[in-house]
Amino acid sequence: MGKLIYSMITSVDGYVCDEDGNFGWGVPDEESHRFIGERSKSVGTYLMGRRMYEVMSYWETAHELAGEPAVVHEFARVWQAADKVVYSTTLTGVTTGRTRLERTFEPEAVRKLKESDDRDITIEGPTLAAQAVKAGLVDEYQLIVAPALAGGGTPFFPQGVRAELELIEDRSFPNGMAFLRYAVK
């Protein structure tokens, strides 16, 4: 059975992007990027909303860019090998391989996916993830904390949700980033 993991880069004050939608303060360096890529190898399916899909679709062709470090090419291959489900009412189609479009997020369908999949599943993008969090579907939270204060914007966690968590892994990086992995008790 696969785990549903909510993982994103977040600021120290808990935002995935600032009030203007910027997230450049959270770009990982090569070491933390390699770590994120290694963690992603367990993922069989990415669930994401339209905006996250538009950002992540970069990885469909990133391996073709000359001059990029090997870590970029490695992560691109990992991302391309996984299945992707995009939830959107506005997209008319998808432009990446191994990708299907769904119009609505159905918690029961995600439960069945978790039961039938032996690989991990990630849910990416705070708006979509909020639905999974509120439905009690998330098994793990993986925060990659950037050494920045966003001062406001889109929060990592939805309001009004409470859960007891157990820290099961942590790591810090020389660039000031920290990885925090929590299991839901």
TrEMBL record:
Give every Bacterial bifunctional deaminase-reductase C-terminal domain span: 3-178
Q: Which Gene3D superfamilies match?
A: Dihydrofolate Reductase, subunit A
- Mark the transmembrane ranges: none
In terms of superkingdom, the source organism counts as: Bacteria
Protein name per UniProt: Deaminase
Taxonomic classification, please?
A: Bacteria, Bacillati, Actinomycetota, Actinomycetes, Micromonosporales
